[in-house]
From TrEMBL:
Protein name: MBL fold metallo-hydrolase
Pfam families in alphabetical order: Lactamase_B_2
PANTHER family, alphabetized: N-ACYL-PHOSPHATIDYLETHANOLAMINE-HYDROLYZING PHOSPHOLIPASE D
Classification lineage: Bacteria, Pseudomonadati, Myxococcota, Myxococcia, Myxococcales
Location of the Metallo-beta-lactamase domain: 102-296
Organism: Pendulispora brunnea
InterPro entries to which the protein is assigned, alphabetical: Metallo-B-lactamas, RibonucZ/Hydroxyglut_hydro
């Protein structure tokens, strides 16, 4: 009903467009394409009954901030002295400055993660920088869900000279919104493109796609490795835990910094998102050095307390001596300089992993869960 109302009222350009023609033909040639859509090599498990019942249950406490969040206005007047910097804007939006190339990841500048301006999850703060003022050479989109492929942000970036690097099929949305085809590069898993001196490689993820009420998974989802002359970074995209993580690390690691989704999870759909503990384990599998937890701190998409992702990441990271970058929205740091961790978020109630475990399945079987390695922290 919402989709029909949106179409009737606004023609709903934000829904985008489906892949057709050669774009669809290329998608169909992908090893990930089966039975008329993209599929994960590992099956996923979801408890639909419990998920729906939770919609009508009493909401958890502290799922949103009680006071406005403090943000930082970043400055990009000088390039990073180390050659590598990362600025986090909340949720999964980040700017990577890596060996002279600036990559904007999953920009979400709209007030809501929704095709409709008055409905859907709303962000908790005004973006700490103007989107069209950022120094951007390339825009990388991990998949076409509304909290990652934001219609309003793409329209703003259309006026720049930035290239767009996206998984297979996602270019249909961009071209529908006026991005010239020559500025769009679509990649299957393990494929790469070069921007300046930076190689951008699409890496496997375990997720899904879609912007409407039908024909889901007609576009691909991915993470991305960024390989420069001196530095390397990896962005997980939205993903559950999967078997290719170690292979990513072997082929493209070690990474100076990883941006790994750590929030907006639920035990009823544990294969769609990593959750905090498996985010740390994914970081270890891909051979990361500093971990920047993303996909939290900007809007509510799951019923857990809003500070819980970062609190649980820190606990899991301490077990394995993993360095964590806990940035304020808008904060810019150079990961190889090992900036000190500052707890900028308030003390609020949150559930430890022992009381609210989120463990994905090995292959869609709820009885076969991924086992976390034992804590190696001494003392």
């Amino acid at each position: 009903m919402v989709a029909l109302a949106c179409i009737a009222l606004t023609h709903c350009a934000a829904f985008g467009a489906r892949p057709t023609g050669e774009r669809l033909a290329r998608a169909m040639r992908s090893p990930q394409w089966h039975h008329g859509r993209f599929e994960n090599p590992q099956a996923s498990w979801t408890d639909l009954t419990a998920s729906y019942l939770r919609l009508f249950a009493r909401s958890e406490p502290d799922t949103q901030p009680s006071v406005p969040l403090e943000t930082v206005s970043p400055a990009f007047d000088t390039p990073p002295a180390s050659g590598l910097a990362v600025t986090w804007f909340g949720h999964s939006s980040a700017l990577l400055e890596i060996d002279g190339v600036n990559v904007l990841v999953d920009p979400l500048w709209s007030a809501r993660a929704s095709p409709i301006g008055w409905l859907g999850p709303s962000r908790w703060f005004i973006p700490p920088a103007k989107l069209d003022a950022l120094p951007v050479d390339a825009v990388v989109i991990s998949h076409d869900h509304y909290d990652h492929l934001d219609y309003g942000s793409i329209l703003t970036l259309k006026g720049t000279r930035a290239r767009f690097v996206v998984p297979l099929g996602v270019g249909a949305h961009l071209e529908h919104w006026g991005i010239p085809r020559e500025r769009i590069t679509e990649l299957d898993w393990w494929e790469s493109t070069r921007i300046g001196g930076l190689d951008v490689v699409a890496t496997p993820a375990r997720h899904a796609s879609g912007r409407g009420l039908s024909k889901s998974n007609r576009t691909l989802w991915a993470g991305f490795a960024f390989i420069g002359s001196k530095h390397r970074a990896w962005y997980s995209g939205d993903t559950g835990f999967h078997d290719d993580l170690a292979r990513i690390g072997e082929r493209f690691g070690p990474f100076d910094v990883t941006l790994i989704e750590s929030g907006q999870y639920d035990a009823n759909w544990p294969d769609a998102h990593l959750g905090p503990e498996l985010a740390v384990e994914a970081h270890r599998r891909v051979r990361g050095t500093a971990l920047l937890p993303v996909h939290w701190g900007a809007l509510q998409l799951a019923p857990h307390p809003w500070t819980e992702p970062i609190e649980r990441v820190l606990v899991a990271a301490a077990c394995h001596d993993v360095e964590v970058l806990a940035l304020r929205p808008g904060e810019r740091v150079e990961p190889t300089e090992h900036p000190p961790l500052e707890r900028w978020w308030p003390n609020a109630a949150w559930r430890p992993a022992s009381k609210a475990p989120v463990l994905g399945t090995k292959n869609g079987n709820a009885a076969e869960r991924i086992a976390l390695p034992p804590c190696t922290r001494s003392g």
